[in-house]
Amino acid sequence: MQASFSKGELSPLLHARVDLAAYSTGLAELKNMIVLPQGGITRRAGFVKVRYPGGDICRVIPFVFNETDTALINFKDSGIAIYGNISGEFTQLASLTSPYNGDDVQDLNYVQSGNVIFLAHRKYPPKMLVRNSLYSWTLKDIEFRGGPFIDSAEWGATKPLTIERGVSMEAEDPFYVLNSSENIFKSTLVGTLVKLEYPMPAVNESLESYGSTTLSRFSKKYEVKGTLNVVTTGENWKGRITIQRSSDDGETWITVRQYIRTDPQTQGQWDFTISESDDNIVYRVGAAHEPDNPKVTVNITVSGFLKNDIFKIIDYQSAKKVYIRLQNSTGFTLPENLSATTKVTLWSMGAWGKYQGYPGAIAMYQDRLVFASSKLQPQTIWLSRTGDYSDFSISSTLKDDDAVTITLAGSSADGIHSLVTTTDLLAFTISGEWKIRGAGDNGAITPSAFTAHQQTNIGTKNIRPIVADGRIIIVQAQGEKVFSLGYDLNSDGYTGSELTILSSHIFEGKQIISIAYQRTPDSLIWVLFDDGTFASCTFNPEHEVIGWARHETGISGLQEFLSVPGARQTELFLISGIKIYRAEARLNTAYTDDGVSFESIIRTLRININAEDGNLLTNKKLISRIVVSTLKSESAWAAPGGLNDANNWERRRKINFDNTGYLTDSEIQLDNGFDEYACVQIRSIDNQPLTVAAITPVVTIGSR
Questions:
Q1: CA atoms of 94 and 105, how far apart (whole Å)
Q2: Residues 6 or more apart whose Cβ sits within 8 Å of residue 169
Q3: What is the pTM (predicted TM-score) of this model?
Q4: Residue 171 in contact with residue 177, Cβ under 8 Å?
């Protein structure tokens, strides 16, 4: 009796491995059936064409707000079509233009946060697709602030730059000239950010007071990072001196210190110093004297310091000269006396742009937006500031919520093609898999507290990994094997195990082009091959159920699998170049693909019986009859199996099951002789359900 089929279809290399436990729970053939988590097998659901407005289908991405609020987004050549009501007839919700070329959309990476899908592609600036309402969607660029940057040393520069003020009629929006003695600029850098550190000169100025009891004459605003010193001079003056501070370039002012002089005979002059360590802070000094009293002169001294500012390259002049414009959100203006002799010793170029390339992988981790792998920096990962997904800035004194840049220190630079977040951030390349983890409080990642270690060297094909039952499922770089990565407490890391090793023949000579996980009702991993066939793996490692089955269909032009949460089950879609197909509910299905019936086949391994003097695998055997235990099934055909399945199939007999909703046993006599390779084959060729819980053959043993 075979009461479990939990290992699915086994490779012919294992058809004599009676020493393996898998032999007693495996099959020689399982086609268009799936293994159930309980160990039984059932016919797979048919795929029905979904009605939708039509048009080419290039790359479909799901939008999932909740299990009842979902949509499919079709990225095609220079356009986006968004469809809703995916459980039934499709309705087009919106149509947008897009910059993505039809040949490029297959390489789009994405991550969703609420009503926003963030998009990444190595050839295009990162974008976000925003759902404003059911029928209103917007595709727009992400306006990044504060970075990220590539250090000048990595850029190949060895000498300082110089910066000077340009000649402009736009007094409110001046530009500056950035010069280099080396050929470092490219025309494709226009639009790229550049971060410069240059000297802000010391200031020493005087201010005379204004005669008023209520108003003060204020100095101009001074950016301070260091010290501000205020000293008064003058005989017998009465009045007040006010120092004010602003963190928004003077939009709002806060009084931080005030000196009021009412009795010159007892009160001396004021000499006061303020120290400032924060960036982008401005001060001003106000002075007033009482009417009909002498004026007071205020001497203001501001210490010089090195300033960091972010500019954008707005025009290319040559390999040694570009025009730049200030981009700081604070809007501070630069000193008037910037000249060609103002040296910039520390600088960095924006990490992303037409020349550098754009990040091709994307994820969310610890409330940070994560990008990875540009053309120029294929092994680098960039994390935004916490809670601000467009801000990649860092403070002069590092803070825990600052942006983070991590470069994987591997022996090869294959490039990160995918990111997956679990408790850790996992990065995938064609040569290995990496774990990035925070080393701060509660495992939080910070600029100064993180680790990045390679976990395995399996190597992952550029197919988006999936998470199934707490494990990460990846396709090996060569495209013929599937691995499961799981966390190992003993090693505090991730280890990989091959899921396809017992059924490797299903994958031989084929390339996996798509993978999806259908969580409910049966925890199924689906893989699509380049020849249009596909396979399923029932994945329930907790109960040692990992069983593969082969599937064939008459549907042509298949491109990818897609799974989307649904109200009753995980909705599974097959996407072709012009059509979308949805798998029907398993327990309420027509066993047809797009109206065409498919055949389901079960073939057992050779019957083996253990005896005192060894097993009887190679003995000839006669299977005179079988008992098939089924549930909610109507009929099927049974025949003996062996070396000549075609001739054996000619002796098939129909089994009619008692479809009462209970597990029932149905017996059928077989027309068969003694055979060394004796086994049983059961097929369903009609549009009827078939669920098998056990197969019990009645066997007579012959000689070897």
A1: 18
A2: none
A3: 0.85
A4: no
